[in-house]
C-alpha cells in the first residue's frame, strides 16, 4: 500500500494543528497552513521540489505578514488606574499650596497637596499639574 505524498502533507498539517492546540504557539498553525498548501500542490500534480517550495513560501509569508499583525492586536494598552491615573492630571488649588502643604481639588475630590519645588507657592484658584502621589498627598507643579 503506497500512500501518496499529499496524505503525508495532511498528516503533517494535522500534527502541527494538534501541537498548536497543545502549545498555543500560533507559528505552528501557520506551518500547518503551509503543509496544506503543499498537499494542494501535490494534489494538482506538482513534484517534491514544488511541494517543499509551496510549504516554505506559504509558511514564511504567513509568519512574516500575519504574526506582526496578530502581535499588534494582542498587546493592549495598559489603562492607568488608582494613583497611576492621577499622575499628570490637572487640579485646582483650594487652599494655598507650598512645600509644607495645602489643599487641591483633583478628579472631583479634595486632596492634601504640597509643592514639588521648595519656595514655590500656588494660590487658590490656580491650576497645577500633579506630578506624583505620596500616600494621601499630591505633589504638584
Automatic annotation (TrEMBL):
Ranges where the NfeD-like C-terminal domain occurs: 83-140
Keywords: Membrane, Transmembrane, Transmembrane helix
Topology in the lipid bilayer: Multi-pass membrane protein
Protein name: NfeD family protein
Coiled coil: none
Cell compartment(s), UniProt: Membrane
Major site of localization recorded for this protein: membrane
